[in-house]
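for the writeup, i need someone to sanity check this before i put it in the appendix. the sequnce is what the collaborator sent (i think, or maybe the updated version? ugh). structure was predicted straight from it, no edits. if anything looks off just tell me and ill rerun, i have time this weekend
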Amino acid sequence: MEKLKYADITQKIIGAAFEVHKFLGNGFQEVIYQRALAYEMSQSGLVFAREIEQDIFYKDLDKPIGTRRADFVVEGKVLVELKAVIQLEDVHLAQALNYLKAYKLEVGLLINFGSKSLTFKRLVR
C-alpha cells in the first residue's frame, strides 16, 4: 500500500484533534478548539505555527491583494484549518484548498469540531 505523504504528521494531528473532541465535545467556538489543539499538538511533540499571515497574489501583480491566515502550519509541511460548524460544506473545502495554494503546501487537514463526531478531510494539492 502506498504511504500517504506526511502520514506520520497527519496521524499525530488527527489523534490530537480526537483527544480535544473527546474532552470538549461540540458546541464551542473555533478559537477554543484551536487553543486546545495547540496544547495537544505540543504534547505530541509537533512543531507548529498558529495563524501565520500569508500574502495573496493575483496574476502578475507585484503587490499582494490581501492576506489570509490558516489556523496552523505543522512542521512547516501540513496546513491545518479548523471549523466548528454542524457540517463541512464545499465552501470550507474550497477555502482550505486555496490556503494550501497560497501557502505553497501540498498536504492539509480540514478538521471540524462542530458535529457530534469529529470529522476531517485530508487535502492534497
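Strands lie at 48-50, 53-56, 66-69, 72-74, 78-83, 107-112, 119-124. The longest strand covers residues 78-83.
thx in advance!!
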